[in-house]
Specification:
The protein has 17 helices and 18 strands. By secondary structure, it is α+β, with helices and mostly antiparallel strands. The protein folds into four domains: 1-123 and 267-305, no CATH class; 124-265, Glutaredoxin (3-Layer(aba) Sandwich), CATH 3.40.30; 334-421; 429-556, no CATH class.
Length: 566
């Protein structure tokens, strides 16, 4: 069994009767949802059921359960609960399906209707057509919302693909599928993604909280400094692109939806269904056999239960029938007929008293036997109750473990995805440095000056920079020049030191604080590209420490020199 939707919405100032009416229309495929009528009937909803049949069961809490069939089996179940609350009406909706179905996450039409038509619904931002398109200038406001401690709804951010300059999924379709569960935000430019990263860093969070290059990210309510980036799942572009183009949005909704229903923030708490009202409405498939089974059960119960006063007495011929019978007997005179009638009535009453006494005695015996049986069963029932409670606790514990295993699995996938994505195609020079540091934590010493220069670099080939750093991590104390030449050919050059003229003239611009904090002149370097334009040329300055580690001091624009190329 899979959960495909779970939402809890509060319609502020809402009319409970009107909301029940709308849900009854949706269940039956009538009124606002008449387009669903044929499908509803085809999938087992009784055609004779009316809206009045459903709404008449309204009590302080109205609950309905709808089951839809496919090929003779119940495949989908919708559980709805509508109840009053302070200042509004709470509408809770859970949709589950058989694992055999191929349907993915898709908000029920009635949930979309509430979000579109009701003036004020909490949590805010969950409407299916409420996609917020964010440009670079809007990022600061977005970050304010992300970090708002009073935010109740999860936010899903979707970034444009750097090559296509557009999202890999239909953000509006994604919002419709996740309506009632999460708010969808579109980062509509590459600059918007970069600004988001920078703004998050400025607010004290890691740059790894960003969303970039066609990825989607779920930001739970309560996002704050100190959170792990893995607490707010990131779905990278290659995972989104794994689905066929026509199913890409649906697949993305499924990945995010699975996380949403596993969580308990901003969605309906609990594992399966809302609490059932005192008089729930159940709309089930209209199978003919069900009626026959009901008749059999009713007959069996009537025959099995002890006598009670509510059972109808045995039929007694009416006075009318008796009079007709007397008229047929013309041989009796009037007086004889009267006496005969009175005598017969007395005899009949005596027989009824006798029968009632016998029934009473039988009922008393049956009651005593039932009481004794109940007393004998009570210990068994107590044991069964304890076992049921134990099974329920085990099921709840298993559900928690499954949810935790899913969370850990998603975290491991995200870690692997991030590493693979950055290794294959770092999106910036700063990323290249960060990945190299993660790959060679014991071989490379990345100085502060290297991070600063990398962040400021405009070089357009971060993949090449990562390759150079990997070479230094692998053979930093070996023949770096030969390896660089084999990999890059004329596109890169290694030098053991600068010329004496350059060192004398520009040595201060090759001097940085080493690992020990002392100023140090760095001479060994690799140059990528040609010229002095920072977009087409970059230099990596480094030194080899006595213990064999490689100290990276500069990863940035070409250092001043007395010649054009060094």
């Amino acid at each position: 069994m899979r959960t495909l939707h779970k939402s809890s919405l509060t319609v502020l100032g809402g009319d409970m009767a009107a909301l029940i009416q709308v849900h009854a229309e949706w269940i039956l495929g009538l009124g606002h949802f008449s387009a669903l009528r044929a499908s509803r009937i085809a999938r087992g909803i009784p055609e004779a059921t009316t809206i009045a049949d459903l709404v008449k069961h309204a009590v302080p809490t109205w609950s309905a359960q709808m089951r839809l069939v496919e090929r003779g089996l119940v495949r989908w179940r919708s559980q709805i609960q509508i109840r009053p609350s302070d200042g509004g009406v709470v509408v809770e909706h859970v949709v589950t399906c058989d694992d055999a179905t191929e349907q993915g996450f898709d908000a029920p039409e009635v949930v979309c209707w509430i979000l579109d038509e009701c003036e004020s619904v909490a949590p805010e931002g969950l409407a299916p057509c409420g996609v917020l398109e964010v440009a670079a200038d809007d990022v600061e406001e977005l970050v304010d919302r992300l970090l708002d401690p009073e935010r109740e709804a999860p936010i899903v951010a979707v970034a444009v693909d750097n090559g296509r300059r557009e999202p890999l999924v239909d953000v509006f379709e994604l919002a419709r599928r996740l309506a009632g569960m999460a708010e969808v935000v579109g980062l509509m430019t590459i600059d918007a993604s970069m600004r988001l990263r920078d703004e998050l860093v400025a607010r004290g969070l890691s740059e790894r909280f960003g969303c970039y290059h066609g990825a989607a990210r779920l930001y739970w309510p309560g996002l704050a400094v100190g959170d792990s980036p893995y607490d707010h799942p990131l779905f990278l572009r290659h995972r989104i692109l794994a689905a066929a183009s026509e199913r890409r949005t649906e697949s993305c909704a499924d990945m995010i939806g699975e996380v949403l229903v596993d969580g308990e923030v901003g969605v309906l708490a609990g594992s399966e269904v809302p609490a059932v009202a005192k008089t729930p409405v159940t709309i089930a498939p209209a199978w003919p056999v069900a009626g026959r089974i009901g008749e059999i059960l009713h007959s069996w119960l009537a025959e099995s239960l002890p006598y009670d006063r509510t059972r109808a007495p045995m039929p007694v011929p009416s006075r009318t029938v008796q009079r007709e019978e007397r008229r047929a007997d013309g041989a009796l005179g009037a007086d004889d007929a009267a006496r005969s009638e009175l005598s017969g009535e007395v005899a009949r009453l005596r027989q009824e008293v006798t029968n009632l006494r016998a029934d009473l005695a039988t009922s008393q015996r049956e009651l005593a036997a039932a009481t004794a049986k109940l007393a004998a069963r009570r210990p068994d029932e107590e044991v069964l109750a304890e076992l049921a409670a134990e099974v329920e606790a085990q099921q709840a514990d298993a559900a928690r473990k499954i949810s935790e295993e899913r969370r850990l699995r998603r975290r491991a996938e995200q870690e692997r995805d991030e590493a693979a994505a950055l290794l294959g195609s770092p999106r910036s020079i700063a990323d290249a440095v960060a990945v190299a540091a993660a790959i060679f934590p014991e071989q490379l010493v990345i100085l502060k000056s290297a991070h600063t220069s990398a962040a400021a670099s405009a070089y357009r080939e971060p993949g090449r920079v990562l390759a150079v750093l990997c070479v230094l991590g692998l053979v930093g104390n070996g023949d770096v020049g030969q390896v660089v030449n084999l990999i890059f050919g004329n596109a890169a050059r290694w030098k053991p030191k600068d010329s004496p003229e350059t060192a004398r003239t520009f040595g201060v611009q090759r001097t940085w604080a080493g690992e020990d904090g002392k100023a140090k002149l760095f001479s060994r370097h690799v140059t990528l590209g040609h010229g002095l334009d920072g977009r087409g040329c970059l230099q990596v300055y480094y030194d080899v420490l006595p213990d064999g580690r490689v100290e990276i001091a500069w990863v940035g624009e070409h250092r001043p020199t007395v010649s054009i190329d060094t």
